[in-house]
Amino acid sequence: MTAVARVVPYLRRHAAFITFAVVVMALPFFIHSTYYLSILAFTATRLMVVLGLNLLLGQAGQISLGHAAFVAIGAYGSAILTTRWSLDPWLAMGISALLAGAIAGVLGIPTLKLKGHYLAMATLGFGEIVLILLIQFKWLTSGSDGIVGIPSLSFAGLDLGRPMAYHWIAWGVALVMLRMALNLVDSRVGRSLRALHRAEIAAASLGVNTSFRKVQIFVVSAVFASVAGSFYVHYIHFISPDSFAITFSVILLTTVVIGGVGNVWGAVWGTLLMMFLPEYLKRFNQDYTNLTFGILMIVIMIFLPGGLVSLGGVFSRARNRSRGPDRARLEEG
Amino acid sequence: MKSSHVVLVLVVALSLFVFGLVGCGGSETTTTAALPTDTTGASNVSTDTTASGPTGDPIVFGAVLSATGPGSPLGEPERATLGMMETQVNDAGGLLGRPIKIVIEDDQTNPKEAVTAVNKLLQQDKVVAVLGSSTSGSTLAIKPITQQAGIPLMALAASNAITAAPITWTWRAPPRDALAVETALTYISKVMKLTKIAVLYDENAYGASGMAEIEKVASDYGLTIVAKESYKTEETDLTAQLTKIKAANPEVVVVWGTNPGPAVAAKNMDQLGMTQPFVGSHGIANAKFIELAADSAEGVIFPAGRLLVPESYTDPEQKAQADKFIADYKTATGANPPTFAGHAFGGLTLLMDAITRAGSTDPAAIQKALGETKGVVTPDGIYNYTADNHDGLVADDLTVVQIKGGTWVLAPR
Amino acid sequence: MSLDQFLQYVFSGITNGSIYALTALGFTLIYNATDIINFAQGEFVMLGGLTAISLYKWGVPLPVACLGAVVVVALIGVIFELAAIRPLLSAGIMTQIIVTVGASLALRTAAMLIWGREALPLPPLTGDTPIDVLGATILPQTLWVLGATLAIVVALQLFYKRTLTGKAVRACSVNPTAARLMGVSYSRVVLLSFGLSAAIAATGGVLIAPVSFMGYSSGALIGLKGFAACILGGLGNPAGAVAGGLILGILESLTVGFLPIQGSSGYKDAVAFLILLLVLFVKPQGLFGQRTMEKV
User: Fold this and answer.
1) Residue of chain C with shortest Cα separation from A204
2) How much is the pTM?
3) What's the ipTM?
């Protein structure tokens, strides 16, 4: 096969990802407003967390209501290491991510044996414990006062704190994570995860190491969340426990479900919706924003129980119906 | 990969572009605040200028307030005050002959939203100065942005860190935590002549900051902290914490928090038969505390601006201004203004005073004029800013208030 | 620590714990019928308190205001079920849960717009005078909350065991398909569960408001603790929910008392959650939950 012949099917197979990546990275050339760039910046870090949760829930079927804690570990880790000990931000990010992963690994082993709502509560409890410790260990975290003066990211002397540069680095990392998640789903790991999600005992009898896989994906999601937290503090230059209220973990879970569980693109659509819709609603009456937002959440779930991602299914089903039965069967495969 | 997904991606990209292009043109957001529980039914909100009123391009101020979320008891009165002032100033001829416009954004007591909000104000509304936020966390998140943009920030929050270096472009209207603590502890040691204190504080930024300050300076006043316990803002019962405090035998219990916590504490102290005096913070300098604590509020002492006891004003100009402010606020909202409302009034007054003296709305000119602020009278106090002092108030601007018979009087000296 | 101090900590724990217990009861009811965790449960507690406050302000006598609030919030629960849960009864569990999250946000904001940003007080049912028990004090209102909780648990047990409707509800929780085949209207059972659960939540709100006031944001913490209590006691077991609530409250309180550091109260939630986690690691179905059979 010639190089061209190999590239074209590759492009077609990953068309959605490539289009998305190109569009996102090109945005700063067209959008100069720091207002929109700041929303996009927050969207990038939010996507990182949601991707991990999407994998956890969609592929492994595990609910976590404590992911705010992993974001906090990354955020506070980076904040403390770069302000107190003047560590290089990238090194701090790596250390925090390792820490988050290690905690997830240790915690995951006993926790992921739980099921359903019990698992949700266990993760919620863990999340709350971490947040309480963050507030109480004032000598480390300055408690409720928060930490100021967190530096921007930089690379080889290039200041990555400026809006355009930050956009590229944050979205760059988010896109890498998206690619990793997409690859995971199609890989052997992904298949074994889905197997254990659907029928754990059957999967175990077929040789899938179920507890290892579950912990594995939990660790991955924790690392994603930690990196997101680090990027967040290097953008906002400030961290306080205010950012990690109880509701944050619930909002994260909501984002995953509204986007669509079981499909990595659900993380993308969910994040975009949950970040941009409130901004749009604010233009009308700021007091009513949350009221409308809550009602819209309900409406979206009623009409699209499978999440936003199922909209694509609606399109393709409609298109296939117009084409005829044989084409439809070929496409769906 | 389904091609329908590519279609979706393109649709989303297209809407992002449209969103961006439409957005870049500037937005028509709701400007002034919807006044809360307006019993009179009349709306004072209007940005129309009368035929003989101010002319020209409006001077646009931005405000980032915590109108929703845990900080809303602070942000909502501030919003009402700013809305009220906007109308008043425009009816009285505007500023430098031009009408003023105050664009208010809600940060939901979340620093991330505050960042988005201030970016919007700077980018789309092109404000000349920013007021806010109501809460310290959001203010600290905004500070680097206004500093980098070269726009004056008039902070409405109390944390000491706000006016810690670097302080260029950052000013503060309310009294710092340190001042309130100084007033309270001075009263305890000099007037009440007590030495053993226990502190019960809210875990939020407000309470924790006050607690940290108390811990730092207690020994300077000859005070020992025999017990310190905390609570979450929404906690339903504080008898456990108070039982622990009671066991340590303090002579006075200092409660540092915003409503409803201190009110619950007051009731619980009565329930437990604790007879120690209750010294609160300026967070309970409002009628809500008395409404909640009812009989248990009797005898409670706290530091506050003189707005609560207008008879205590020594400067007649200040008293007249305070009386008018209280009356106007009551007409506009049906309630007496809490101290937070006074902060917003002071903040805007200071900005307008600086603009008047500078004769222009160029941010650098406003900044320079702010640094030369001398003797500006507001209900919160008389402000003097210098190059190093961006806080403006001194201990004398605060007084110690006691609740007697359901209203405020000056605490016995 | 002296006896009266220890007792005071226990009473303090009961005051908080009884409100967790009532909230947990509400969670259990809905979970039994539908497997859903109602994230808006705390908001129903809040609405109950605030509605009673408004009714009382409009001159309605206190006991009538309390009962009226319970009825109104039960109605809201029913409307919520019809509007948001019923269309999704055949959808996945996650979808249903997210709907309750949306409802929680909407209800909280609506409450903020109606009742304002600050907390509001309500007079207690039988006065404020604390009752002295061996040197420790307990408020009469707390006894009301406790009494109501126990009465509701007993009533629920009687309902489940003795009445036909109750048996139908139990049938649905064990096997909805079989129950349907036997002629039980599943959707009516769900409707009843939501209404009852909202009524129980409102009772809690109405009774706790005199002790700790009620504001638009009071529901979040109560909901969280109620959920934790439910899990601690074992999901699906009403008596377990009550036990879980009381145990959680007393655990928190005793942490404040026994942890030998200044400022122990900051850690009380952490200790409570830690113990909850340990319980779950040892007994994954909660203290009194039933071991579920997993079909292969």
Assistant:
1) C296
2) 0.87
3) 0.89
